[in-house]
Amino acid sequence: MDFHHLKYFVEVADQKSFSKAARNLHISQSAISRTIKALEDELGVVLFMRNAKSVELTDGGTIFLTHAKRVVFMFEHLKVDFENEFRLEQGSILIGLPPITDAPIFAQLLGEFKRAYPQIELELYEHGSKKIELSVQEGLIDIGIICTKPNPKEFESFYLTSDPLCVILPRDNPLAKEKEISLDMLSEESFVLHKDDFNLHDEVVKSCKHAGFQPHIVFETSQRDLMLQTVGAHLAIALLPSRLCPTKGENTKVGTSVVVRPLVRPEITHTLYVIWKKGHYLSHASRLWLDFVTAKLPLPSGSVVSEGK
InterPro entries from the entry (predicted)? Predict the structure, then answer.
């Protein structure tokens, strides 16, 4: 077994096709088939179920893929990370973050890091927290920003920031006269929520159920402006972190047609965590970013940073 055996195996698993994998790797299909067969013989396990239309991993193949991806990733990054350690600080970091990230804080962190390490490239991918967790697990991105408490068995993590949710209502909604709003007061309202690949979606639905009602969801979106427009059109109410709510100084049609009220009983807090895969190789550039962020954002009292970077 050598590196090429593993690389060919990972490509076939990703493409679910021997022919597509062969084209991507610029080798013949027969060569890649022989390599996979030799790998299966060496392991004593069938890695793929083959049929005329597709190729699917067996249970053994699924387990082996996790280890193979880790080895391939480390091998492909070996030269770059070695040079980073002994020459210039360079490389790239793939970071996944939800659209509801605290933009001012995060943008400031990225800007300061880029000024400190101009030769390190930052690539950002915007997805819901659930997809970000999965992407970190699969090694598709290096670091993730999520808004739910990470599973310590799967991720190393640290606290980034938190923000309470507020209720956004049409200005002529009867509840707009209230100074603060409890969740049970919204039982008869229609909701516009983030899509269900956002953990905040699940948190709101769960809190509504605890308050004694199932929320009537009329629309789901990942776009903050579209959510506010839906409220401004009298179609629904919304729950957003306070920093993403329209302000009195936001002189737009939407900003002047809605009101923002604190959500109480219960207060729902939108908390962000930085995560990376536990026990997984982390590039030098990624370790620099984590060290930089933790130095810039001292942990609140009682918080614990997971070790093992």
Answer: HTH-type_LysR_regulators, LysR_HTH_N, LysR_subst-bd, WH-like_DNA-bd_sf, WH_DNA-bd_sf
d(CA 90, CA 49): 41
Averages of pLDDT over runs of 10 residues in the chain (309 residues) are 87 88 90 90 90 84 90 79 62 85 73 89 89 92 91 92 92 94 96 87 93 95 89 94 78 77 92 91 88 76 40
SS3 content of the chain, % helix, strand, coil (to 5): 45, 25, 30
The sign one gets for the Cα dihedral 290, 280, 138, 285 is: positive
pTM of this prediction? 0.62
Please name each of the domains of the chain with its CATH number: 3-86 (1.10.10.10), 91-160+271-296 (3.40.190.10), 163-270 (3.40.190.10)
Distance (Å, whole) CA 273 – CA 291? 15
Nearest residue to 164 (alpha-carbon basis) of 132, 204, 115: 204
CA 184/CA 235 separation, integer angstroms: 19
25-37: pLDDT as tens digits: 899 989 989 999 9
Amino acid at 54: S
Backbone region of residue 234 per phi and psi (left: phi > 0; alpha: psi in -120 to 50; beta: other values) = left
Task: Please tell me the distance from the alpha carbon of residue 195 to that of residue 223, in angstroms, as a whole number.
Answer: 10
Orientation of helix 103-116 relative to helix 284-296, angle to 10°: 120
